């Protein structure tokens, strides 16, 4: 029998991120729809869907950068996020060409 596609499942890209919130830095993975921009995901339907999932998360207290928690899954309130950085693939910071 042919497999029936799940209409609720969409293809996503996993991105490693560093998220800054009041008092915390969270390093983990977010899952964006293919070709979606991070800003669109953060701003989309904030009133109806104010939370963003983060997987394999490590939470660090600020300013001392001490590990406070690890979680396989977190649901972060988008309104509390101050800054999100997507880590470049390969783990090395990319320099701008001049």
Polypeptide structure, described:
The protein is mainly β and 98 residues long. It has one domain: SH3 type barrels, CATH 2.30.30.100. The chain contains one helix and five strands; from the N terminus they run E-E-H-E-E-E. It has one helix at 38-43; strands at residues 12-21, 24-33, 51-61, 67-77, 83-86. Strands 4-3-2-1-5 form a five-stranded antiparallel β-sheet. A hairpin with a 5-residue loop joins strand 3 and strand 4 (67-77). The longest helix has 6 residues, at 38-43.
Largest sheet: 5 strands, antiparallel
Helix content: under 10%
N-end to C-end Cα span: 56 Å
List the helices and strands in order.
EEHEEE
**Class per helix and strand makeup:** mainly beta
Q: Note the beta-strand portion.
A: over 45%
Précis, in short:
With 98 residues, the chain is mostly beta strands.
């Amino acid at each position: 029998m042919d497999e029936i596609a799940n209409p609720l499942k969409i293809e996503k890209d996993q991105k490693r991120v560093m998220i800054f919130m009041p008092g915390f830095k969270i390093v983990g993975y977010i899952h964006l729809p293919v070709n979606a921009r991070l800003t669109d995901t953060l701003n989309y339907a904030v009133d109806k869907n104010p939370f963003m999932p983060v997987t394999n998360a490590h939470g660090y207290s600020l300013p001392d950068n001490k590990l406070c928690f690890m979680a396989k899954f977190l649901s972060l309130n988008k309104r509390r996020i101050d800054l999100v950085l997507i880590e470049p693939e390969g783990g090395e910071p990319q320099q701008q060409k001049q």
